[in-house]
Amino acid sequence: MVADLAGSGIETLADVGCDHGWLGISLLIEGKADRVIGMDLRKGPLSHAEENAKLFGLDGACFETRLSDGLDELSPGEADVIVMAGIGGVLMCVLLTRGLEVAKAAKRLVLSPQSHIESVREFLVSEGFEITDERMCRENGKYYTAMCVSHVSERQSPQNVRNRKAGMAAGKCEAKAWALTDEELFFGPVLIKKSEPLFYEYVRAMHGKAKKRIGEINGKDPEKEEYFRRLLVSAEKILSKLEKDCV
Predict the structure, then answer these.
(1) Which phi and psi (to 5°) does residue 31 adopt?
(2) What's the order of all strands across the beta sheet hosting 108-113?
(3) Cβ contacts of 31-36, under 8 Å, gap ≥ 24
(4) Chain centroid to CA 63: how far?
(5) d(Cα 170, Cα 184) in Å, to the nearest integer?
(6) How far is CA 122 from CA 76, 93, 104, in A?
(7) Is 132 helix (H, G, I), strand (E, B) or coil?
(8) What is the pLDDT of residues 75-130, one digit of tens each?
(9) CA geometry: angle at 53 spanning 63 and 140, to 5°?
């Protein structure tokens, strides 16, 4: 899923949190990338990545490793594709904020947050990134989402412009009109448009989860309860539309 979104014709791919380096190695072997920079906060995974690369005859010229906290050791324009996968959404936003100029300079980012994906989408769109594609898969009963994004300009992505116009037409405050709807934040603007069977299954699962969590919280944590109520309402709106389209 992540490899598919990374695409081909890549000059330099930076894999942030590369672990054992398999993503970059596979892209090099398949001829989809000319060079890979594997980055990780820990020396152990980088050593394993280097060893794995050598097993396939890949030297430091095409497979380089760097000890780095997020994008700290990457310069703007050094990588045309940047991958961040297997990182929590809140941490991903922190890393992207700190390395914002590096992220904006890349042709595309491939992001697969493990949690709080709505926070990542909100951050991206507010910083002028366009979500160009989204994919979903399920492994061992767990759903994973990845998205491909490119920087357009501050609050001028097609999604921002569309939602700003819609917000102004509805009489909403202009300061918030550029934001994605709750449905798009929680479930993804591209995934909603595709409405594939797995997506429908995922929305139903999140609907059930939200109802269960609201019952468990039962007023004990108003902030968390409000979060799950937003998720519940968003899921209900999407399910209603999907069911109408199937009639």
Answers:
(1) 75, 20
(2) 63-67, 33-40, 10-16, 81-87, 108-113, 142-151, 129-139
(3) 32/3, 32/6, 32/7, 32/8, 33/6, 33/8, 33/81, 34/10, 34/62, 35/11, 35/61, 35/62, 35/63, 35/64, 36/12, 36/62, 36/63, 36/64
(4) 24
(5) 18
(6) 23, 10, 16
(7) strand
(8) 999 999 999 999 999 999 999 999 999 999 999 999 999 999 999 999 999 999 99
(9) 110
Tell me which fold the domain 2-178 belongs to: Rossmann fold (3.40.50)
Q: For 186-240, how does the pLDDT look when each residue is reduced to its tens digit (9 = 90+)?
A: 999 999 999 999 999 999 999 999 999 999 999 999 999 999 999 999 999 999 9
Residue 217 CA: distances (Å) to CA of 38, 112, 186, 225? 41, 28, 20, 6
Q: Is 199 helix (H, G, I), strand (E, B) or coil?
A: helix
Sequential DSSP letters for 78-109: S-SEEEEEEE-HHHHHHHHHHTHHHHHHSSEE
Q: pTM above the 0.85 mark?
A: yes
d(Cα 150, Cα 106) in Å, to the nearest integer? 8
Residue type at 110 in one-letter notation? V
Q: How far apart are CA 169 and CA 186, in angstroms?
A: 23
Number of C-beta neighbours around residue 223 at 10 A:
7
Q: With contact defined as beta carbons under 8 Å apart, do 4 and 70 qualify?
A: no
